[in-house]
Structure formats: C-alpha cells, structure tokens
Amino acid sequence: MARVDADDGTLRTIETNIPARMDRLPWSGWHWMVIIGLGTVWILDGLAVTIVGAIGGRLTEEGSGLELSATEVGSAGSGYILGAYLGALYFGAALSR
C-alpha cells in the first residue's frame, strides 16, 4: 500500500497485488544470474576500496616513488568515488533504454 496526495490535498491509499504476484513467480536462472552478478560487483568494489585505503598512506612516504601530499591522495580518492558515481549514472541510463 502507498499513500499519495489527491488533488484536494488529502491522502488516499492505493492497494496493489503486485508484491503478492511477484512472490508467486518461480525462481529461475535469471534470478541466479542477477544475484551472482551483483555479488561479484559488490566484492570487486569492496576490494578496490580496500586497496585504495591500504596504499593511500604509503603513497605519502618519502621514497615511495610518488611522494604525494595528503591532499593529493584525498583528491585521487575523491576522483575515484566521483568516477564510480558518474559511471553508474551514465551506464545505468544507457542500459535502461
């Protein structure tokens, strides 16, 4: 059930059978494909975040080869998150067409 505003400002309840109908659908190979795909992406994203977090401090040390400042490491991490966000928006919109 959902509550929505009517034209006169009052709330009315909409009842639907969609959740019950979805519960009656049989589990299929497509469902497993979605679960495995999402799980794989979740694991890989966690791995990437862990790697970035683990090496961020080492990149600021003298003799590391890069010797970045804390600001540069933070900017790179922010760029990583921004890129993931924009990529999800772009590919989500492109795949939904």
Q: Could you describe the largest sheet, including whether it forms a barrel? A: 2 strands, antiparallel
- What pattern of helices and strands is seen along the backbone? EEHHH
Radius of gyration: 23 Å
Terminal residue distance: 28 Å
Count of DSSP helices?
A: 3
Describe what this molecule looks like in 3D.
- With 97 residues, this protein is mainly alpha-helical.
- Helices cover 63% and strands 8% of the residues.
- Strands 1-2 form a two-stranded antiparallel ribbon.
Provide the fold topology.
Elements lengths: L1 E4 L5 E4 L3 H7 L4 H28 L13 H26 L2
Antiparallel strand pairs: 1-2
Compose a concise summary of this entry:
The chain has 97 residues and is mainly alpha-helical. Helix content is 63%, strand content 8%. The chain has helices at residues 18-24, 29-56, 70-95; strands spanning 2-5, 11-14.
Question: Which tags fit this structure?
Answer:
2 strands, mainly alpha, 97 residues, two-stranded antiparallel sheet, 3 helices
